[in-house]
Design goal:
By secondary structure, this protein is an alpha/beta fold. It contains five helices and eight strands; from the N terminus they run βββαβαββαβαβα. The chain is globular.
């Protein structure tokens, strides 16, 4: 997508390696756009999470062409499936004094089966509202959904009190596809991936144009005991 060697790095954290591409902004503030690149042994991980990696790659190309006020950190996280190891490593490595520099984290996990939605349990309310507003402007149907007992890489940043949202595009029968031998390219609806990418990019644009603390709020109750 045109990234220079100087923008690309391999970040080794405990139990994982992250591929990181950093696009410098012209003003203070950082936005993380992430997706995990690992997958379980069954299937080939086309939905979970090749779609997310494709989306952040295209988001990088768009940001590169559009220009960014805030620095954008594109992160391909390792070992999400084993326990969010890549995103936890990145989030925990941020020095406490630097946490306020992180304006938001936009996570993409498993587009391709249905229209995009926000994963309610691991998404900030204010940032989710931004996504909802952008979807309305773009006339993309959008909702908030709950997936019991599941988690996502945005949770690692919420623990550090960094506003975060996970965007997904799963359907009601997701459990019969993800983590099975049915997770193949033929299962992917490309329109779903495209709409999800557009919504993620629009969310980035909104955050990029806002004050860095615009979406700060207490962590969701599910994380407050951690």
């Amino acid at each position: 997508m045109g990234a220079s060697p100087e923008e690309i790095s391999i970040e080794k954290v405990k139990d994982a390696e992250n591929l990181v591409v950093t696009r410098k902004g012209t003003e203070p503030g950082k936005i993380v756009i992430g997706a995990h690149y690992d997958f379980v042994d069954e299937g080939c991980g086309a939905v979970d999470n090749w779609t997310g990696i494709v989306a952040i790659a295209h988001a990088y190309r768009s940001v590169r062409q559009l220009g960014a006020k805030k620095t954008v950190i594109f992160a391909a996280f390792g070992n999400e499936e084993k326990g969010l190891y890549g995103s936890k490593g990145m989030a925990l490595a941020i020095p406490t004094a630097e946490v306020p520099e992180y304006c938001a984290m936009i996570n993409i996990d498993s587009f391709g089966l249905a229209l995009p939605f926000a994963f309610k349990e691991v998404s900030s309310n204010k940032l989710t509202t931004v996504v909802e507003d952008r979807a309305a402007v773009m006339k993309i149907p959008f909702t908030k959904a709950s997936i019991p007992y599941a988690s996502a890489d945005s949770a690692s940043f919420l623990v550090r009190r960094i506003p975060a949202v996970t965007l997904s595009g799963l359907s009601a029968d997701w459990a019969s596809i993800l983590h099975t031998n049915k997770d193949q390219v033929r299962a992917v609806n490309y329109t779903s991936v495209y709409l999800g990418y557009r919504l993620a990019l629009a969310t980035w644009a909104a955050v990029d144009a806002s004050p860095c603390d615009a979406y700060q709020e207490p962590a969701p109750s599910i994380l407050q005991k951690k």
